[in-house]
Write a structure and sequence with these properties.
Number of helices: 14
Structural class: alpha/beta
Strand order of the largest sheet: 12-11-8-13-16-17-18-19
Bound molecules: cytidine-5'-monophosphate
CATH architecture of the largest domain: 3-Layer(aba) Sandwich
Helix content: 25-40%
Number of strands: 19
Radius of gyration: 25 Å
Distance between the termini: 25 Å
CATH topology of the largest domain: Rossmann fold
C-alpha cells in the first residue's frame, strides 16, 4: 500500500520517524510530505533516509510531474501526524497553499489525522469546530492522548503513540472483512522454569504470530494477543503476557468463550520440569551430571478444541505444525495433528535447520479439515495475509 504521511510543524514531528518505521516494517511504501514548518523540527534527510523516498514539500519544483495531484491520486491512505491546530484550521477550510494541502484535497483515499497541541489549544472552540467539520466530512481525527506535554504541563494534547496511529490508519484502509470478530492469537515460545534463574525454552521469535495479529487487526478484528516471552509495543484490543505453558493454558481457556477464532501460533513446551527448585541449582553441589525429570504439559490446543466442541462454542481454531520434514511427510504429519488436535485449519511449515526462527521470511502450507490446501511464502506479513484469508473464509 502507498501511504502518504503528512507531518506538520509541532514538537511531536520527530515521532514521524517511528510512524515511518512501523509502516515500512509492515511492507508499505511511505512518501512523506512535511509542511515548511515541520522542517524546522525534523530534517528532510532523516525523513528521506527512513522512507527511502525523496522529500520535497515545495509545490513549485518538479512541476512537470504534477506531483500535487499525483501524490493524492496514487495514495491508498493518508496520515497526518502530528497535526497542529493551524493545520486543522487550514484543512477544515480546504486551504491548498502547499503540497500537503493539495494532496489532501486531491485524494479519495481514507485520511487519518492525529492532532498534537497544548490542552488549551485543543479545547479552544475554534479547534473544536474545525475537528467537528473534518469528522462530518468523513476524516478520522484521533483524540489526542492525555499525558506529559512539551513543558511541565500534563493534559489532553499529546500525540497518540505511533503504534496506535498506525493501527488505526491501517484499519481504515483494510478490507474490514473481520470487523466485529474477536480473534485470540497466541504467539512466542513458553519458558518452563528449572529454578529461579534458568528455564527450558525454544527458539520461537513470535514474529509470525505478531504478523497474523496485525493483519487481523488491520482487517477490523478485535484482537486479543496472548504473548509468551515476546516484546512488542503494538496496541491490540487486549494483550496478556505469559511465561510458561501453564500460564498460557489458563489464559487461553479463560478467553476461548469470548472469541470467534483461536490462532494457536505459540510454540508450547511439550514438557515441564517436574519439581522446580526454589533455590538456584549449584554445580558445586550437583557435580558433573544433572538429571532433570520432565512431565508432559497438557496439549492446550487439543483442550481448547475439546471445550469448543463440548460447549458448542462458535470458535474457529487454527493450529501450527512446525516440523523438520518437507513434502508429503510434512503434509502427513500436519494432517495427523489437524485430526488429533481437532482444529479447523493447520498451518504446516518446515523448520529444518532452524532457519525460519527469527527470520523475516517463511513458507507454509495451510490445510483445512475438508482437505483444501493453500500455500504461501514470502515475508511473514504475506504469509499472515494467506492465513487470515483462510480464517476469514471460515468466519
Ligand atoms: O504437537 P505440536 O507441538 O507440533 O503442535 C503444534 C500446535 O499445537 C501449535 O498450534 C501449538 O501452539 C499447539 N500446542 C499446544 N499445546 C502443547 C503443544 C502444542 O497447544 N502442549
Amino acid at each position: 500500500m502507498l501511504v502518504v504521511l503528512g507531518v506538520t510543524g509541532g514538537i511531536a514531528a520527530y515521532k514521524a520517524t517511528a510512524i515511518i518505521r512501523l509502516l515500512t516494517a509492515a511492507g508499505h511504501q511511505v512518501k512523506v510530505v512535511p509542511t515548511q514548518n515541520a522542517l524546522r523540527f525534523i530534517g528532510a534527510t532523516t525523513l528521506e533516509a527512513l522512507s527511502h523516498h525523496a522529500v520535497d514539500p515545495d509545490l513549485y519544483t518538479d512541476v512537470e510531474s504534477v506531483k500535487h495531484v499525483e501524490l493524492g491520486q496514487s495514495a491508498d491512505l493518508v496520515i497526518v501526524a502530528p497535526a497542529t491546530a493551524s493545520f486543522l484550521a487550514r484543512m477544515a477550510s480546504g486551504v491548498a497553499d502547499d503540497l500537503l494541502g493539495n494532496t489532501i484535497l486531491a485524494t479519495r483515499a481514507p485520511v487519518l489525522v492525529a492532532p498534537a497541541m497544548h490542552t488549551e489549544m485543543w479545547q479552544n472552540p475554534a479547534t473544536r469546530a474545525n475537528v467537528e467539520t473534518l469528522r462530518k466530512r468523513g476524516i478520522t481525527v484521533l483524540e489526542p492522548a492525555v499525558g506529559r506535554l512539551t513543558g511541565e504541563d500534563v493534559g489532553p494534547g499529546r500525540l497518540p503513540e505511533p503504534e496506535d496511529i498506525v493501527a488505526a490508519a491501517l484499519a481504515l484502509a483494510g478490507p474490514g472483512d473481520l470487523r466485529g470478530k474477536r480473534i485470540l492469537v497466541t504467539l512466542g515460545g513458553t519458558q518452563e522454569p528449572i529454578d529461579p534463574v534458568r528455564y527450558i525454552g525454544n527458539r520461537s521469535s513470535g514474529k509470525q504470530g505478531l504478523a497474523i495479529a496485525r493483519e487481523a487487526r488491520q482487517r477490523g478484528a478485535e484482537v486479543h494477543v496472548i504473548a509468551a516471552n515476546v516484546d512488542f509495543t503494538d496496541a491490540f484490543a487486549k494483550v496478556t503476557r505469559v511465561a510458561s505453558a501453564a500460564d498460557l493454558e489458563k489464559a487461553v481457556l479463560a478467553s476461548i468463550h469470548s472469541s470467534d477464532a483461536l490462532v494457536m501460533c505459540a510454540a508450547v513446551a511439550d514438557y515441564r520440569v517436574d519439581s522446580i527448585s526454589d533455590v538456584k541449582l549449584k554445580r558445586g553441589h550437583l557435580g558433573e551430571r544433572l538429571q532433570l525429570s520432565l512431565v508432559a504439559n497438557p496439549d492446550i490446543l487439543a483442550l481448547a478444541n475439546a471445550t469448543i466442541r463440548r460447549e458448542n462454542l462458535r470458535c474457529v481454531s487454527i493450529g501450527f505444525a512446525a516440523e523438520t520434514s518437507s513434502g508429503d511427510q510434512l503434509l502427513s504429519y500436519a494432517k495427523g495433528k489437524l485430526e488429533s488436535k481437532g482444529c479447523d485449519l493447520i498451518v504446516a511449515n518446515d523448520v529444518s535447520g532452524g532457519a525460519v526462527f527469527g527470520a523475516e521470511a517463511n513458507s507454509v502450507t495451510i490445510l483445512a479439515k475438508d482437505g483444501a490446501l493453500a500455500t504461501a511464502s514470502g515475508g511473514k506479513a504475506q504469509v499472515a495475509t494467506a492465513v487470515v484469508d483462510a480464517l476469514a473464509k471460515l468466519l
